[in-house]
Amino acid sequence: MSDLTSAGTAIGGGPVGGDGPMPDARATGGKERSASLWADARRQLVRDPVFMIAFLYVLVVGSMAAFPKLWTSQDPGACNTDRSRVTPSADHPFGFDILGCDYYSHAIYGARPSMVIAIMATGAMVTVGGALGLLAGYYGGWVDAIISRLMDVFLSLPFLLGAIVFLTVIKRQNIWTIALVLFLLSWPTIARIIRGSVISSKDLDYVHAAKAVGAGNGRLMFRHILPNAVAPMLVYATIVLGAFVAAEATLTFLGVGLQPPAESWGIMISAHQVYFLEDPWLLLFPCGLLVGTVLSFILMGDALRDALDPKFR
Hints:
The chain is mostly helical. The protein is built from 12 helices and no strands. Helix 11 packs antiparallel against helix 12. 42% of the residues are buried. The model is unreliable at 1-30 (pLDDT under 50).
């Protein structure tokens, strides 16, 4: 928590002494230091080859999800059993699946549900978890007690088992329900991150200075305290994007996620696992795309953490 506090203090402008300039100057200095931190982080990330490679890989996968027709002109639904499990060739680089469908087009179109679910779940987690963590950390007292106990309830649920149970009970496996379940089981973690950052920041001198000149609770939270939590929240959100991509594939593989005829890397892995010894490429292609995507998000998160932490400067 001390590392997150240090990063948060730098982003928020940090405390200043009682004999310093007037509060307006303090706010200006905080913005300058905040801008400097993000500018330094951007320069460090651009010079980091690991981050850039991971970022480019994510861009490629993102373009597959958003614009699949840029990557393939084949229709993934055009199948012919006469071509079942035909090996890769120049015209069909991933070969054909057991139904005789072009495997490359399935892999391209399979990126969309994984990315959409990950983005939806992460966005909801950051919005709801961040807001509840901010309220709990800032107000404390009974507000903190109620939100903290609610977090404890959801944290007590095993992630994979809870997701399986929820999706089995709902009995509607689609992008919306999977994203909802992933959000419900993950928001307490980011709420705790935000809560800890807020608690460590709300008693700093620059916050008291803003309060002394009449800043209300809303301004204190969103203009002076919340910026301290942006760095750890951004790092965690980047990493959890990869975790959600893996979670979607895992749930689909276990039979409680997306179902055919939807295209998904999890469906491709589940449908062809029995052919690994005979045609290993049927598993290697979707597994390679999945592992590369998850690893890229994790590497980006690690690089962001190092770039935004003043202790690494």
